Amino acid sequence: MNVIRKLVVSVSMGMLCAECLAATVCPRCKGATLPEDVFCASCGWKLLAPYSTDVSKSVGWTPLKLSLIGPVAFPYGGLDVYGLHLSAIGGSCEEMGGVSVGGIFSICKQLKGISVCGFLNSSTGTGFFDVSHGIQIGAYNTVLGGLRGCQVGVINRIGAKSADGGLTGLQLGVVNYAEQCSCGLQIGLINIIMENKIKVLPLLNEYF
Asked: How confident is the model at residue 37 (pLDDT cuts 50, 70, 90)?
């Protein structure tokens, strides 16, 4: 009977919650850590299959990865890096947890640490519920999804709407761009937050 009640509530609300299936905090009720079933035990939301919470398609993980450029690396393959990733020209990995240093570019699917490079610094994400945590330092920093942390560069970009609210933290650069800003600050020459009523401001911008 309880399951039927939850199903009715979920269908009637027409809302889905991808994060719930990963046993994280439900974004609707902001409270309960969820059991391993298809309903939120607190609010009754129906859950969506985990297309984004399982961001990594890795075959394992390594504490150290050394890259020349892209796939030319040791160890080879789609690995998560939890530790240190050093790249002569540039490197890529699945999930980056730790410190990544690249000559020209540094690319990962989800950042949980610090990423520093000369030009392109990218956390590509895979969906609406993806959130990167950490610091990006480079000429062009970009995140697809949400960012809890800081971007420092010439151009900083958070380029998609996110369940997490886009920017939660700081963007410091010449041009700063965010689709959303739930709790954050932009400092730069041109600052853009697309969901604000006044989307473009010089010097300083934040959510209002």
From this structure: very low
Domain count along the chain: 2
Average pLDDT on 35-64 reads 54
| Residue type, position 19, single letter | E
**Do 71 and 32 fall into the same domain?**
no
- Structural domain span for residue 17: 2-47
pLDDT per residue as tens digits for the range 92-141? 888 899 999 999 999 998 899 999 999 999 998 755 557 889 999 999 99
CA distances from 75 to 65, 71, 85, 94, 103 (A): 6, 10, 11, 13, 18
Residues 15, 82 share a domain: no
pTM: 0.70
pLDDT at 170: 95
Same domain, yes or no: 178 and 78: yes
Who contacts 62 (Cβ-Cβ below 8 Å, separation ≥6)? 75, 79, 80, 81, 82, 83
Q: Kindly state whether residue 86 falls inside one of the protein's structural domains.
A: yes
Same domain, 102 and 175: yes
Residue 55, token pair as written in the block: 């961001």
- Please report, in angstroms and rounded to a whole number, the separation of the first and last CA atoms in the chain: 44
